[in-house]
Amino acid sequence: MHKKTSLALAILLAAGVAAPVMAAKVPAGTELAAKQEIVFNNGAEPATLDPQKMEGTPESRIARNLFEGLVIQDDKGNILPGVATSWDVNDNNTVFTFHLRDDAKWSNGDPVTAGDFVFAWQRAVDPKTASPYSWYIEMTTMANASDIINGKKSPDQLGVKALDDHTLQVVLDKPIPYFIRMLGHTTMVPANKKVIDQWGEKWTSPDHFVGNGAYTLTDWVVNERIVLKRNPNYWDDKDTVVNQITVLPIESENSELSRYKAGEIDITNGSTPIAIEHFRQLKKDIPEQIHTTGQVGTYYYSFNNKKAPFDDARIRKALSFAIDRNVITDKITGQGEIPAYAFVPDITAGFTPVVPAWAKLTQKERVEEAKKLMKEAGYGPDHPLSFELLYNTSDNHKKIAIAVAAMWKQSLGVNVSLVNQEWKTYLATERAGDFQVARAGWVGDYNEASTMLDLLTTANGNNYARYSNPEYDMLMADSKSVVDETKRNEMYNQAAKLLDRDMPVAPIYQYSTTRLVKPYIGGYPAANPEDIFYFKDMYVVKH
Amino acid sequence: MLKFVFKRLIEAIPTLLVLILVSFVLMHAAPGSPFTGERSLPPEILANIEAKYGLDQPLYVQFFHYLGGLLQGDLGPSFKYKDFSVNELVGQSFPVSAEIGLWAFLTAVVLGVLFGVVAALKQNTWVDYGVMSLAMTGVVIPSFVLAPLLVLIFAVHLRWLPAGGWNGGEWMYMLLPVLAMAAHYISSIARIMRGSMIEIMHSNFIRTARAKGLPAGYIIWRHALKPALLPVISYLGPAFVGIITGSVVIETIFGLPGIGQLFVNGSLNRDYSMVLGITVLIGALTIMFNAIVDIMYAYIDPKIRY
C-alpha cells in the first residue's frame, strides 16, 4: 500500500508542494538515555568520504549523515525536501528550478548556496576529478554531461546554474521522469569550494572536513572506526537527538555478531548475510531485535546468451524453471528473501509487476515444462547437457550453487561443474564473456523499475548476460520520456514480458536487508527499500 | 663487526629490487585492476581514472616511476582508499601491528622459555607432561579458533574485556589479541626450549659444573640457559618479523587497524601501490632482522665469533 502513497507524494512534490520534515520523532513519555551515542557497523572501510568520488554502499551510508542533498527520504522511501524546500518544473519536464532553504549551513557556519550544488556537480563530471560515478550525472541527461566527461566540453558548460544564492536551475536533455528521485544520491550533494580549494584531496581528513549534514567528521582511523559528531550548524539540529555516531568497518560476520552480543555494536551492517545456523538461533533468542526490509535488488544467474547452447531460449527457460526458489529462500538464505520469478523486485516504487504464468505453477509442473523444453532443444537422458557454473567466493553463493546444481541434475539430468573465483578475477571473467552461466546480483541505484530493466539493454556496460533484443532496447529508451506513471508502468511490464519470454537471466530471489538493532534504538526506519537511513532520525531510549 | 653489518646492507639492495620487480609483475598480472568494480565503468570514465593514477602509461614507465618515488620515500597514493597515501596508511597501521606484535613476542619469549626450562628440568614427571600437552594444544589450535573462543568467554559471557577494537591502544583492548597471537609462539618456543635444555643438561660441561658442587640454580642460569637459547633465537628471527607485521586473522577477528588487514585487502582490491609498499616494508624488515639474529648469534656463541 505504501507504494501508492509514495507515488502520490512524489507527484505532490514534483508539483513543488513542501511536505512535512522528517526528524527524530520521540514518542511522548519516552525516557531518553543520558548518553545519546550509537555504534553502527558499516561492514567495510569506506574507499573515500568525498561524495563526488564515492561509488559504494559503505561510503554513501556515512555520507548521507555528513551531507544533505536537495532531497532526502523518509523511513519508507518517500521523497522529502532536504536543502530544497520546493521546486518548479517546466511543461516539457526538462527544466527544474529548485528553491533552497535559507537557513541551510555548512558545519563551518558558511551558508549552503545554489553555487555549492553547481560546483559539486561540475566537479563530479570533471575528468580531473576522475569520479567513478560521473556516469550517474550523465544518466540524469543533464545538458552537456557526456561531452564534459569525454573531454569535449568544459565542466562549466554543465546544464546547471545558480540563478541566485537560493535558486538552482537544472536543464535536462530528456524529461527523465524520476529525476527528483535520482537527486537523493550522494553524488548529488553539495560541496564546499573554499575548503576543497584550500586542502585539495586532504579536505576529507577530520581536521579539515566541512559538510552540511546533521553530523560532521571528527575522527577517522582506517580499518578501525570513524566518529561523527552532531553538527550544531545543521538547519534542523534542534530536532536531532543522537550526539555521536561511531562507524565500524568490521567485515567478518562472526566478529560483528560477537561484538553485537557483547554490547559493543548497536546496529549491524545488514549487507553480509548472517549464516542461517546463527540466524535461526538469533530468531529464537532475540526475535525482536531482527529487522528485515525488502530491497530493490535481485539475485540471479546470468546465462551467456552469446554462447551455445545458451543462445537457445528453451535451454535458458528450462534451467530457470527447474530452480526451486522456495528451497533457496527457506533453507539456504532464510532471512526474508522473496523468491524471484521476474527481474524487477515487487517492492520497486511505482511498479506493479504482472506475475509470469509459470510462477503460478507448482514446482512439479515447472519441472515437467522444463523437461519438455530440454527435449525440444535436443537434450535428454541419452544426451545430457553439461556446463560450468561460475560464482565468486562466498559461503552463501557456494551453498546456492550446490543446491541449484543438484536441482538441475535431479530434474533435468544436467551435469554442472562449479567454478569458484575470487572477486576481481570473477569480475574479469564475467566481463570477458568467458563463462557459460554465472552468479550475479544487482541492486538499484534509485527506487524505480528502470534501474533494473536498463541493465539488460544491449548497450548497457553491465549486461554480462549479453542479452540483445532491439524491441526491448526500444521500449526502454522510449520509456525515458514518458512522464505518465501508468503508461510507463505498462511499458515496463511489456519489457518484463520480453524478459520472461527470452529468459536471458534466471532470477532467483529478491534481496532483503536483515539487521540486528538493539531494542533501545528508536527511530530505525521500518521499511526503506533502498536501505537509506539517517542517524538524525534516531534516538536512544534509556536502558 | 662493522664490516659485517655493512656487507649485509649492500647485499640487501639487489634482494629488495628483485622482490619489488617480482611483486610488481605479479600484481599487474592478476586479473582485474584496482578500478574493476561490481559496476563496469564506461570506457571514457575509466580512461579518466587511469590517467589520474598513471595507469595509462606503459608498465615499465610505471615501474621506474614507482622506484623513483620509493627512493624519495614515497610509496604512492592508495588506489583503493582515495583520501590517503600509502605512506599515511602504513604510518597509521604499522605502529598498531608492531605494538601488539611486540607484546605478543615478549609474552611468547618469557612464557615459552620458562615453560620449556621447567619441563626440561622436570623431565618425564607430571609437570613435564602437563606443560607439554598444553604446548601441544597451543600448536594444534589455530588462532582463528582460539581468538573467537577467547572473545566468547571473556567478552560475550563474562564481559570482562572488549570483544574488539583498538581505542588508541588501551591495554584492555590489547589483552585478548596479544594472548591469541602469543599462544602459538609460546608453545613452539616451549617445545624448542625443552628439547635443547635437555640436551644441554646432559652435556659434559654441565656434568662438570655439577661435580664441582655448584648450586642447581646457578648452573642453569650461568651455564645452561645461554647455549640452550641458541635454537630459540634462530627460530625467533624470522618469527619476529612475522609477528610485528601483523596477523590478518587476529586483526580481522578483533577489528584492529593493523597492517595485516591492509595487506590482504590490498591484494584483494588490486591496490598495487599498497601491496608493493607493504611488501617492501616486510622485505626490508626481514632482511634486517635476519642480520640482527646473525649478530646475536655471534655474541652468544663464541664458536661463531672466533
Automatic annotation (TrEMBL), chain A:
<feature type="signal peptide">
    <location>
        <begin position="1"/>
        <end position="23"/>
    </location>
</feature>
<dbReference type="InterPro" id="IPR039424">
    <property type="entry name" value="SBP_5"/>
</dbReference>
<dbReference type="InterPro" id="IPR030678">
    <property type="entry name" value="Peptide/Ni-bd"/>
</dbReference>
<feature type="domain" description="Solute-binding protein family 5">
    <location>
        <begin position="79"/>
        <end position="463"/>
    </location>
</feature>
<comment type="similarity">
    <text>Belongs to the bacterial solute-binding protein 5 family.</text>
</comment>
<dbReference type="InterPro" id="IPR023765">
    <property type="entry name" value="SBP_5_CS"/>
</dbReference>
<protein>
    <submittedName>
        <fullName>Peptide ABC transporter substrate-binding protein</fullName>
    </submittedName>
</protein>
<dbReference type="InterPro" id="IPR000914">
    <property type="entry name" value="SBP_5_dom"/>
</dbReference>
<dbReference type="Pfam" id="PF00496">
    <property type="entry name" value="SBP_bac_5"/>
</dbReference>
<keyword id="KW-0813">Transport</keyword>
<keyword id="KW-0732">Signal</keyword>
Automatic annotation (TrEMBL), chain B:
<feature type="transmembrane region" description="Helical">
    <location>
        <begin position="12"/>
        <end position="30"/>
    </location>
</feature>
<feature type="transmembrane region" description="Helical">
    <location>
        <begin position="274"/>
        <end position="300"/>
    </location>
</feature>
<feature type="transmembrane region" description="Helical">
    <location>
        <begin position="100"/>
        <end position="121"/>
    </location>
</feature>
<protein>
    <submittedName>
        <fullName>Oligopeptide transporter permease</fullName>
    </submittedName>
</protein>
<feature type="domain" description="ABC transmembrane type-1">
    <location>
        <begin position="94"/>
        <end position="293"/>
    </location>
</feature>
<keyword id="KW-1003">Cell membrane</keyword>
<dbReference type="Pfam" id="PF00528">
    <property type="entry name" value="BPD_transp_1"/>
</dbReference>
<keyword id="KW-1133">Transmembrane helix</keyword>
<dbReference type="Pfam" id="PF19300">
    <property type="entry name" value="BPD_transp_1_N"/>
</dbReference>
<feature type="transmembrane region" description="Helical">
    <location>
        <begin position="171"/>
        <end position="193"/>
    </location>
</feature>
<keyword id="KW-0813">Transport</keyword>
<dbReference type="InterPro" id="IPR000515">
    <property type="entry name" value="MetI-like"/>
</dbReference>
<comment type="similarity">
    <text>Belongs to the binding-protein-dependent transport system permease family. OppBC subfamily.</text>
</comment>
<feature type="transmembrane region" description="Helical">
    <location>
        <begin position="133"/>
        <end position="159"/>
    </location>
</feature>
<keyword id="KW-0812">Transmembrane</keyword>
<keyword id="KW-0472">Membrane</keyword>
<dbReference type="InterPro" id="IPR035906">
    <property type="entry name" value="MetI-like_sf"/>
</dbReference>
<feature type="transmembrane region" description="Helical">
    <location>
        <begin position="232"/>
        <end position="254"/>
    </location>
</feature>
<dbReference type="InterPro" id="IPR045621">
    <property type="entry name" value="BPD_transp_1_N"/>
</dbReference>
